Amino acid sequence: RDVSYKLNLPEELCRVHNTFHVSNLKKCHADEPLAVPLDRLHFDDKLHFVEELVEIVNREVKRLKRSRIPLVKVRWNSKR
């Protein structure tokens, strides 16, 4: 019985480990395709996902006793 699953990854992800133990796999029940186009994702040289700021949605300053804490709500390009 096979205990691992090997993915056929595109060339852009050649540095990503492509073999997984079956205990790490979970069923996915989705109504729409989960494929995300790779051209819209950005990775650094260590294959960490790079999020980029799209827009600043809101700003406010929270007061806590004598402190002022600036809060910024940001929309990122994240596809997570």
TrEMBL record:
Residues 2-29 form the Tf2-1-like SH3-like domain. InterPro entries: SH3_Tf2-1. GO terms for molecular function: RNA-directed DNA polymerase activity. PANTHER family: CHROMO DOMAIN-CONTAINING PROTEIN, NUCLEOTIDYLTRANSFERASE, RIBONUCLEASE H. It comes from Tanacetum cinerariifolium (Dalmatian daisy). Keywords: Nucleotidyltransferase, RNA-directed DNA polymerase, Transferase. Pfam families: SH3_Tf2-1. This is Putative reverse transcriptase domain-containing protein.
